[in-house]
Amino acid sequence: MTTARPVLDLRGVTRTLPSGDSPLTILHAVDLVIQPGEFVAILGPSGSGKSTLLGIMAGLDRPSAGEVYLDGEPLHSLSEDALALVRRRKLGFVFQSFQLLPNLTAKENVLLPIELSGVRDPGARATALLAAVGLGARGHHYPVQLSGGEQQRVALARAFASEPPLLLADEPTGNLDSTNGTAVMTLLEELRARHGTTFVLVTHDPALAARAERQIHLRDGRVERDELRASRPGLRSA
Amino acid sequence: MTFGLLLRQIVRDLRGQGARLVFFLVCLGTGVGAVVAVAGFSRGLENGIRDRARQLLAADAAISSLRKLTPTLENTVAGLPKDVEVARTFELVTMITAGSSTAAAGEAMLVELKALEGRYPFYGTITLAPERPLTELLTKDTAVVAPEVLSRLGLRVGEDLAIGGERFRIAATIAAEPDRIGGTFTLGPRIFVTKEGLDRTSLESFGSRVVRKTLFKLPPAGTREDLERLVATLKAASNGVLEYRIETYAESQANLRDGIARVDKYLGLVALLSLLVGGVGIAQTVRAWLAGRLDSLAVLACLGFRPREVLALFLSETLLLALAGSLAGAAFGTAVLGVLPLFLGDLVPAGWVSAWQPAGVLRGVLLGLALAAVFSLPTLLAAGRVPPARVLRRDTEPLPLSRLSISVVLTLLFAGVFGTALVQARSALLALQFTLALLAVALLLAGVAALLLNGLARIPRERLSYRLRHPLAALAHPGSGTLGSIVALGIGVLVVLTLALVERSLSSQLRSDLPKDAPTLFLIDVQPDQWAGAEKELRAAGATRIDSVPVVMARLKALDGQPVEKLAEGAKENKQWTLTREQRLTYVDKLADDNEIVAGQALGAHGATAKTLFVKPDVAELSLERDFAKDLGAKVGSVLTFDVQGVPLDLTVTSIRAVNWKTFGINFFFVVEPGVLEDAPQTRLAAARVPPEREDALRSALARSFPNVTLVPVREVLEKIAALLGRLGGAVRFLGGFTVLAGVVILAGAVGATSSRRGREVALLKTIGLSRASVSGIFAAEYALVGLVAAGIAIVSAVTLSHAIAVEVFDLPPAGTAGPVLVAALSTVFVAVAAGLLASLGALRRRPIEALRSE
Known about the structure:
The complex is a heterodimer. Chain A is an alpha/beta fold. Chain A has helices spanning 50-57, 80-90, 106-117, 122-132, 148-161, 178-195, 206-209; strands spanning 8-17, 24-34, 39-43, 65-70, 73-74, 91-95, 166-170, 198-203, 214-219, 222-228. In chain A, helix 3 (106-117) runs parallel beside helix 5, helix 4 packs across helix 5 (148-161) and helix 5 packs parallel to helix 6 (178-195). By secondary structure, chain B is an alpha+beta fold. In chain B, helix 16 (482-511) crosses helix 25, helix 17 packs antiparallel against helix 22 and helix 25 (772-809) runs antiparallel to helix 26 (818-845).
């Protein structure tokens, strides 16, 4: 079930950082294609370049060399403004530390991306999303009034709020106990399935990665292994 | 992002920002309050004068002069249309005594007498107690007096007093007089009599200085053109003689208005200082606020906010808070205007300045907004440069501003300060001087503070007790943020202390620095045949150092053949007055020792004799005072033509003198060669030292024997000037206090801004076993050090600056500074400790585990 255009297409992506006399290379000419609807886990030990790769996929960071296409948009050459617009329309995020805006209520946190995308009746949509993550009654609470698991569920609702084609998650259960972690992960997969969203998960937890259809192992900034785990094809193309 | 979303987001964002709002309110509130108070005050006064312009002149137009009107002018006045009303007033300073039948019989005092002819005033009313019309109560045998006359002489309405030796019955006291302004300096309280009453006294004929005013009132239907026509007719009749000052109500009080404009300018800049110091506080608050929101900024970027949308969001929020702060400041300033009269005493008549001054409020609010924008911009620009990757990596710091952005920001900052100074000073030069001076002071303060902090960092701390080691380390460690607080607090202390020291110099000069042998009183208008008797009275009163000289009144007509009118053309009003006023000439055998010849004959001599000074046989010679010569543009060899009461007289300048006026001895601008003026009509001026306890008796004795002679007590006059100055100084210091307040707020802000770091520090200190009291002690020591450093730099700068101002600008010896300096040092340290501890209160109260867990 492939489509003509991949959601993500990374070509020879290299990222170096200045460090003392010789620059430090975090990513070495990474090539990667992710098709619509895939659930991909990016695995690797600490310092393997997972987060850097995720940042570049999201247009939060720029490659030092190489090209990045998100749904056909050349992220490597867009201005900051254009990148912001791409994130607004095409990306949802879930972070390890939830990253809710502390001075907004749960509902307002969910509302913000909906309002930004200019959808009609954003309130009803935000309410529906909160109900979908089981927090229909907690919309008026501020993040500090919610438990970690609840905060992450609000973050999930926010991530799906603008119905982005691509969802990026960085250790989404890293700050949660196992019960909450499992609950959040299950919810995430449900939502993904319901919305048909492409999902890239960065983690160092093999158990979590095992839920993905495709696993990409990073080591020292290079793709060490790229393996399909389920029947669904996640094809690699050159 | 739509406008609606922007608004919604602003509202959401501002919730729970109470502390920041309070900060904005205080930072901007003090400065805007000061600006509104000053602008409102001067505007209110200006309006007060404009609204009362007719009352202040008491007429539509007036001719004022020291001389009687010329026959041409008299004829013109007599020939005016019947419906133009004419009245006259005659003002002079004279002595009065309590009537012989009263308890205080013979006691004398100095008053400002005003004699009235015709219906006066045309505008405004003189309110009397008992409340009856002036025309009804005032006859040729009665007087109405200011209440001080009664209290001073212990008299009651209905009793008698003597003016110029003649008896007058007190018919009423004056409750309000339309054309007398409290702020102007007066020699004594007011007394009204009729012109016939004045004529009974023959005071006028003794050559006293009488200000004569002829007042005109147009019929009610009179237009502006009628008034201009009237003035043109009078000006034509005065034949261009400047001595006859012809003015309409619209131009009257020019000096007063100039004074107000000056006060507005300088006080406006003092007020601006507190606003600028508040601006530093804004910058600090905004920086601290954004520092705590870097994560949120990164999240916003992830959600798709563009950098310019983030800037718009935060700039709008800042401006909204600034608006709230400015409005609060405007309310505060308006309240200050309400209580300002308490500080000004009777400088400004009650009810003149209404507290509600929309123009002042607008100015304050706009300046507040502009400065808040300018001062917060550098930080807000950085907000747009928070890399969104911070959501993944917390240690990602905002990208540095480009060099171009930094230069734009600095230019904006400079332009902002200059622009606001321009609004306040309305003079580009003054605004530029202000901006550069402020820049220099801030750089100096920052430089010295940095050096001192650097020095503190080098003190070997190992051997010190932790109580001292910790505060030293806290001050000295890089990025402690104390530099800004020190500069802001320092500027505040510097301003207030400088103002206080300069004022102290001025008033101590006036109050106590009289030379030991300076005269304690002057006698003026002594007739030549009265001098022997007056001298006897002086000696009887134990007077020493009696000195007396003849005074001949004359008018300057020309300098080197150039008519004075021509010289005065286009000159400033002050110079015109210098040229055209009645001049006092004297002749002496020997100059006093405080006269030094600086040019011409007898060069270098101190207290030259007439023999050495006047040696040219063929011309009548004149020795001219240096500053007056400069004003006039005369030098040795110039010929000054005088009109000595109708007789022309040419005098050649053969020497120029420098006079030390601080001796308070008798001195003149014009000293004429003896043998020239002896036959001219003249009076004598005398000075003497009389023991203070015998002054009253002498005043009474002189008033009894020589009712036309006026005794002017030096000490009392100086006290009055010093008191006036004190009240003005009080108002200035009051404003300067706003600057200190702003500085304190900033210190508290700096401490508050680091509250999370503080909290962790407290937690760690408590964890290792320190009690809350010990931690407070350590913090107090740290803030005391901040206060001490700020006070130290400010004090040294203020003492230097005030000495320079006293010596260079006012030509005064610097006054003692120990008292104010001690007060400044102690109060700065106290205020710094109090503000610092208050701002750390939250951190001190938290339990250690809370602070450590939140990290």
